[in-house]
Amino acid sequence: MAVQPFPSPLRYPGGKLKVANYVKLLFTLNNLLDGDYAEPYAGGCSVALSLLFGQYASRIFINDIDPDVFAFWHSVLNETDALVKLIADAPVHMPEWRVKRHFLDHPLDEDTLLQRGFGAFYLNRTNRSGIIRGGVIGGQDQKGKWGVDARFNKPELISRIEKIARYRDRIHLTNDDALVFLKNLKPKLQKRSLIYLDPPYFNKGEGLYTNAYGPEEHKDVAKAVAQLRTPWIVSYDTTERILELYSKFEKIEYNLFHSAANHVDEAHIVKLAAAAKAAQLRLESGITEPATEDKEEPKPRRRGKEVMFFSKGLLRPDRIDDPSGVSAKQLNQLSLAL
């Protein structure tokens, strides 16, 4: 089930690839393998693609309200050859960067999805941290350590796009508001499904995202999440308001650095495998309520830069305190134990 380290051709602020292995653990532990996976805030789609390529999810439902991000993914899935040609032929220098920036900043009715999608892709690969409306790598005078073309490896990016396109029949793309997406999603998902919400950051969101949220919108999302019946996880920047909105749910607060605290011994791998098999037996027996679990003494969680919340009844590896630091070795140990 190994996949390439960077399945997405997009660079994205707050990119979710760092938690992909942890989400794979959740799929395994909760008997969700070969199920559906959905993201209302798809962005770079790294976790979704990693699950799809690794044969964890059979279908992925990706959504983004940003029209230019949607246009890019639409082009990947529906106009692959044309998009690849645009990338292959594109000059990567400051005059072209200025053309693309002006194009995206001044949309016209006659712009096609392919044009908008390619423009978004071009700026994503040439701007700092992949922020489409951000500053160019190397600065306007190109006197920085890296130049505008530093992240524009055409053969590699084209290879990623062509691979994604080969899975187009298993990728469902929409351009809705996140709450509309969640409402429309319910009848489409099979029983084995997981929804991952990674909303715009509560703090500094306006500097990172085209469609940042205000306090009331974050509240609306929390209310909608609480009503979901499909298993879910939510990740955010750690703020007092977000902790308050999701106070009824279990959580992990963590830093973005890998930690030795994530070591999982062999005995615990066996325990996790037993829990996953129990979940499978409950599903096969038609039991939908979560099993009663023996509760260990709560461990203190270190306060970090990000926080992940979990729906009630979702099994999780309790000795892993940093979802961003799960190694391939830990993932493989669990898979072998099962």
What spatial order of strands do you see in the largest sheet?
Answer: 3-2-1-4-5-7-6
CATH architecture of the largest domain: 3-Layer(aba) Sandwich
Distance between the termini: 14 Å
Question: SS-based structural class?
Answer: alpha/beta
Assess the beta-strand content as a share of residues.
5-15%
Secondary-structure map with pairings?
Blueprint lengths: L19 H10 L5 E5 L6 H8 L3 E7 L3 H12 L1 H10 L4 H12 L7 H14 L27 H12 L5 E4 L3 H8 L7 E5 L17 H12 L5 E6 L2 H6 L4 E5 L11 H19 L21 E5 L17 H10 L1
Parallel strand pairs: 1-2, 1-4, 2-3, 4-5
Antiparallel strand pairs: 5-7, 6-7
Helix pairs in contact: 1-12, 3-6, 4-6, 4-7, 5-6, 11-12
Quick summary:
With 338 residues, the chain is an alpha/beta fold.
Jot down its keywords:
338 residues, Rossmann fold, 12 helices, 7 strands
Describe the structure.
Helix content is 39%, strand content 11%. By secondary structure, it is α/β, with parallel strands linked by helices. The chain folds into two domains: 16-65 and 176-337, Rossmann fold (3-Layer(aba) Sandwich); 71-165. Helix 9 links the parallel strand 4 and strand 5. The two termini are 14 Å apart. Residues 257-270 and 287-304 have low confidence and may be disordered.
